[in-house]
Every structure is written in structure tokens, then in C-alpha cells.
Amino acid sequence: IEIGMGDYNYPKLNEIHGSKVSIYVTPYNKLSESFYARTKTVTDQITHLVDGYLYTSRGREDHTIYTGYTGLALTHFLIYRKTKNAPSLEIAKKLTDTAITRLSGDLVSFLTGDAGPLALGTVLYSLDGNLDRSSCCNSVKMLRPTYRVR
């Protein structure tokens, strides 16, 4: 029997019966309070561990969105978008400001270069209506492709 990619059948949540579903979801298709609490606890623990990375020597050097503190800023921004937790937004802004002051100016890549921090900075500054700071967008446009072997 040959099965194509579109032939897989994943059951919908309401098609799964039994006690396992009630651990995660209420009858109204909302996350159960216990599962939400556990998830929030684990998320907070992971965020705390990852934030500790900033105080390592590698963490202070790496401004990229892929492995550095702009990635942490993006994580905090996404947490803010989901929870409206103002301290997460402030952390995101602080980390992004630090990253922007440490741009190398020679790598265009979004993940490992200057484009990622500049793009996130544009989003964060635009949220505040701080159009002077949102000139990061112009900096992104001025980046030129360069090739560098790491």
C-alpha cells in the first residue's frame, strides 16, 4: 500500500475520547487550569534559565536573533503579545537596544547578522510610536550583501 503525504488522518480533538483529553482540555475546548498552570510554570523556568545565558561570556558577545540576546528579546516580545505582560516588553526593548548598539555592520543575514536586531527594533519602536528610533528600518534597507566566512 502506498500512502501519500495528504493521506495521513490526524483525529480532531473532539474525536479523541477518554480521560487523557480531560487532563489538557475542558469540555469547552479551553486549556484546563491544571495544564495551563503547569505550562506556565515550565515556561517561566525556561525563560529564567535562558535569561541567565546573558550573563555568560558568550551571551554578552552574541547579539544575533538566532543564538544571541536578540533571540531572547524576540521571545520576550512574543510573551508580551500573548500575555500583555509589560515587564516582558521592557526586557525585549532593553535587549534589542543593547543588540543595536553592538551591530557588526558587515553581515546581512536575518538570523546571524544585523538584519534581525534591526527588524525587531523597528517593530518595538513602532509600538511605542517612537519614529526617530524606528529608523532601524532604514538601516535594514542600507545593509548590503557581504560574504564572510566564520
From TrEMBL:
PANTHER family in the cross-refs: LANC-LIKE PROTEIN, LANC-LIKE PROTEIN 2
Alphabetical GO biological process terms: carbohydrate metabolic process; peptide modification
Residues annotated as transmembrane: none
The name this protein goes by in its record: LanC-like protein 2
SUPFAM superfamilies, per database record: LanC-like
Source species taxonomy: Eukaryota, Metazoa, Ecdysozoa, Arthropoda, Hexapoda
Gene Ontology cellular-component terms listed: plasma membrane
